[in-house]
Amino acid sequence: MHRRSLLALPGALAAAPAPAQTPEVDTLLVLAVDASGSIDADEFRLQREGYAEALSHPGVLSVIASRPRGAIAVAMVEWGSPGGAATVVDFMRVEDATSARALAEAVMAAPRSPQSWNAIGDALDHCARLLLAAPFRAAERVIDLSGDGPDLRSLRAAAAARDDAVAAGIRVNALAVAAAWQVTRLGEPLAETYRREVIGGPGAFVVNAEDRRDIARALRAKLVREIA
Questions:
Q1: What is the pLDDT, as a whole number, of residue 6?
Q2: What DSSP string runs through 171-189?
Q3: Domain range for residue 74?
Q4: Is residue 81 part of a domain?
Q5: How far apart (Å, rounded) are the C-alpha atoms in residues 145 and 198?
Q6: Cβ neighbours of residue 48 under 8 Å, at least 6 residues apart?
Q7: Which percentage of the chain shows pLDDT scores above 70?
Q8: What angle do CA 41, 47, 52 make, to 5 degrees?
Q9: What is the mean pLDDT of residues 77-88?
Q10: Is residue 134 part of a domain?
């Protein structure tokens, strides 16, 4: 398939100048969550609960409060189908327990989007555009992608989408939801595939979650590192 740079496509990664009155936060964070066909209803519920728990954890709130503006803004995107990534929770400001609880409730209440199989590159393109059109300003812009498999059917390869996001000043981190001993069809652990094809930017990293019951722990540690 012929793959053009995202920078040559309509809606390329070029942010419009933010109005002077746009509120500032320390970090703009998009949580790109795997909602593909490999996840059944019980696993999906565990995943949502893990995100809600991590986002409202006192340890995460403490790190947010320690930053210069004492606030971040978070959005959630679900991905899976080629070209089908969907924003299920738009940007919400988090600065204290009350706002974190509101975000957690929004995460739990959002309807599951219809998705099929593992188009990571398309998800990264969607998240990058969402960040660049955010209603907040921040020096740090991060995509935090979680998944249980490699990129399979993207209209654009994950690495190409990652490279364009990084060129636009966005860092891409990843959460590999797979036991360390499990390997992809490439014969390597999923975390290694994400390290090579998905993450990018200064300080980018991958965290491993053993399964969806482990997401809250892994994501909590990851959020603290990303925000701090």
A1: 42
A2: EEEEEEES-TT-B-TTSSB
A3: 23-227
A4: yes
A5: 8
A6: 107, 108
A7: 88
A8: 125
A9: 94
A10: yes
pLDDT at 212: 84
Residue 80 lies in a domain: yes
Number of domains the chain contains: 1
DSSP assignment of the chain: -----GGGSTT-S-PPPPPTTPPB-SEEEEEEEE-STT--HHHHHHHHHHHHHHHT-HHHHHHHHHSSSS-EEEEEEEE-STT--EEEEEEEEE-SHHHHHHHHHHHHHSPPPP--S--HHHHHHHHHHHHHT-SSB-SEEEEEEEESS---S-SS-HHHHHHHHHHTTEEEEEEEES-TT-B-TTSSBHHHHHHHHT-BSTT--EEEESSGGGHHHHHHHHHHHHH-
Are residues 31 and 51 in contact, defined by beta-carbon separation less than 8 angstroms? Answer: yes
* CATH number of the domain bearing residue 221: 3.40.50.410
Bridge-based pairing state of the strands 170-177 and 206-209 = parallel
Q: For 111-154, give the secondary structure using H, E and C.
A: CCCCCCCCCHHHHHHHHHHHHHCCCCECCEEEEEEEECCCCCCC
How remote is the C-alpha of 164 from its chain's centroid?
Answer: 16
Q: Are strands 140-147 and 86-94 parallel, antiparallel or unpaired?
A: unpaired
Give the orientation angle of helix 158-167 with respect to helix 120-132, to 10 degrees.
20
pTM given for the model: 0.89
CB atoms within 10 A of CB 155: 13
